[in-house]
Amino acid sequence: MVLETIFAMSQQKSWEITRFLKTLTYFDVIPFLNNIPVIKEMILGQESIAQPSFSPQKGTILVAGATGGVGKRVVQRLQQQNYSVRVLVRSIDRSRSIVGENLDFYEGDITISDSLKPELMKNVTGIICCTGTRIQPVEGDTENREKYYQGVKFYEPEVAESTPEAVEYKGIKNLVQLAYQEMQDSSYLPIFNFRNATEEIKSIWGALDDVVMGGVSESGFYLDHQKAVFSGNVSTENNGGFASVRTKNFESPLNLSGYQGIYLRVKGDGNRYKFFLRCDSSWDGIGYAYSFDTQKDVWLDIYVPFAELTPVFRAKTMNDAPPLDASQINSMQLMLSKFEYDKQLNPYFNPGQFRLEVEEIKAYREGKTPQFIMISSAGVTRPGRTDLDLSQEPPAVQMNEQLGGLLTWKLAGENSIRESGLRYTIIRPCALTEETEKEGLYFEQGDTLKGQVSRETIADLCLLLLKTPEAVNKTFEAAKSSEFNSPEMWRQKLSQLTTDS
Ligand SMILES: NC(=O)c1ccc[n+]([C@@H]2O[C@H](COP(=O)([O-])OP(=O)(O)OC[C@H]3O[C@@H](n4cnc5c(N)ncnc54)[C@H](OP(=O)(O)O)[C@@H]3O)[C@@H](O)[C@H]2O)c1
């Protein structure tokens, strides 16, 4: 196809083969050329050889207590689902063998506020807090804490190190206070911030004009005073009529599941432009397009809802295409074209000079999701309650005093979250087990629930909560249900729970 285009177009006068090759080389369309550095350098110039790779900034999920039974499973799932993960651990060296190497580690102790610096919250859009006072059998445990983790057979327990007051209350309060001051609002996920752009941002956007089809339009993308400018000259000569800039494929696909769409802050010239997302990594695959109008010299907020994107292949709509997979965004593109879709004309199109300024590209979500998810415990309100027969309660309730007021301090920690101003969800699991079979979940409020639930299931629930606005500002108990139900059903049940007053 490349050679045919070169031959056909070289017959036409004004077409530039060097720009054609430059475009294909820039986007790595001709792998054999790119594998020969001398040729690549000849076509693109010296800079091309040492191009930095770029991944758009992703919202980071912070996991506190990442080395624990629930925490390590949460981390594993976040990585599988392509989240950017930071882990707060007390010893990085010790943690590597538990959670793996490829993580953004932060060493700190929640009970020591000085060890929690603002950098801990950099880019953080969600926190999953799985910390807990270290409890062990009085008789001792194995190196892997097998007696603690099994959760079925009773071993006389004791507090192993820091007190519940320090971990469950002061520690949680320290973390919550810092989160409230420093955390980003998770309703937006910054992707390209051209107000504060880096060289990497510049290097990932490249011109992709109708030169690839034989046309002579020419555009570029450059940074200028805290914004990016997409500008050039669009021409209909040689049956052309589009100019665009596209990103190379991101280093790893961007996971925008849970978001409703893309927000663009732009200032245009009255033209109608298109914005594209691609969820496969191929050069010439399906693009998901959205047209937006601009006003000359007026800054506009453009919202591009994923649900309103049109799947297109070379400007032909593809009605049978699957909907956009927002968890796999590989590239973005901005375009000015003579055509809308299926040969319909762009009603505002005028050939010639054009200019679109872009300040910011972010993902947005409409419903606000929880910012702080805490694993607390069933039973936190039960010590001292007169409406309950304490002799029928689980050991943690009966032994609350002996365990340094473990549940009482957990309740105080919960209260500091409820009072914080953050959007939160507090899960109070019943006895935790190491069961690996898939389980259904049962939720209740009022703190009388008894039962068991696996750490695997609680980790699955945490991941669901990150995308569940229906769970915001709710506290509930959770146990394995007698019948299996799926996370979709959990979402429904969560929506029926009462919001905390
Ligand atoms: N066991 C049960 O049946 C049960 C039932 C209901 C609720 N829960 C609660 O559920 C939560 C998760 O349970 P789990 O079994 O996964 O707990 P776990 O395995 O004991 O993990 C606790 C985590 O907290 C971390 N941690 C402790 N003190 C810390 C501190 N001062 N600063 C930073 N991190 C600290 C630990 O880190 P290190 O590795 O450095 O120690 C560990 O990663 C806990 O809050 C637990 O109380 C347990």
From TrEMBL:
Start and end of every NAD(P)-binding domain?
65-188, 361-469
Q: Residue limits of the NADH:ubiquinone oxidoreductase intermediate-associated protein domain? A: 193-358
Pfam families recorded for this chain?
CIA30, NAD_binding_10
Q: Which domain of life is it from?
A: Bacteria
Q: InterPro entries from the entry? A: Galactose-bd-like_sf, NAD(P)-bd_dom, NAD(P)-bd_dom_sf, NADH-UbQ_OxRdtase-assoc_prot30
What residue ranges are annotated as transmembrane?
A: none
Which SUPFAM superfamilies does this one have?
Galactose-binding domain-like, NAD(P)-binding Rossmann-fold domains
Q: What is this protein called?
A: NAD dependent epimerase/dehydratase family protein
- Organism encoding this protein: Dactylococcopsis salina (strain PCC 8305)
